[in-house]
Write a structure and sequence with these properties.
single chain, about 160 residues, mainly beta, Jelly Rolls, about 5% helix
Length: about 160
């Protein structure tokens, strides 16, 4: 016999509730598969990248580890300023805190479907080198700041 609680832990990519679907201005769709069935420590998203669009801005993470698997389609992975062609069946891991910058671009005429799985640390800083911007998330608060406004003279040393 199936428990009702168990039923909430089984989902289908075709029936993800709207509250777990993000839609970007240029057609990108991200379905939060893991969150929709109660995942707490990991996220698992289905990213649908339309032709001519990017999956995200080019960035790296301080604490979030990610794994990407190309379910279908073809595109370009920009990885540490190198461009690599990717297609159905390709995958790669991006360990946290290594400064590995990445984004996908759909350079084909069909949707690029990516399974994006990763950790959900309580604190993480994303760095966007093309814009010299940081996005820091901690305790549910997100702060954005520019590398140009960093104060190199400040010190945590109480004797200064």
């Amino acid at each position: 016999m199936t428990n009702t609680t168990d039923m909430k832990r089984i989902g289908s990519m075709d029936t993800v509730a709207d509250e777990f679907i993000w839609k970007g201005a240029f057609g990108l769709i991200s379905k939060e598969l893991g969150k929709s069935v109660g995942s707490e420590q990991l996220y698992a998203n289905l990213d649908i990248v339309p032709p001519g669009a990017h999956s995200t801005k080019y960035h790296s993470h301080s604490r979030q580890e990610e794994f990407f698997f190309i379910l279908s389609g073809n595109g370009t992975l920009r990885l540490n300023d190198k461009e690599l062609q990717v297609g159905t069946g390709d995958f790669f891991a991006k360990p946290a805190g290594k400064g590995i910058t990445h984004t996908f671009y759909n350079s084909s005429s069909q949707n690029l479907l990516i399974l994006d799985v990763g950790t959900r640390p309580e604190e993480d800083t994303c760095y966007y080198p093309d814009e010299d911007m940081y996005l820091h998330r901690m305790n549910g608060i997100c702060q954005k700041y520019s590398g140009k406004t960093l104060d190199d003279d400040w010190s945590a040393n109480p004797d200064t």
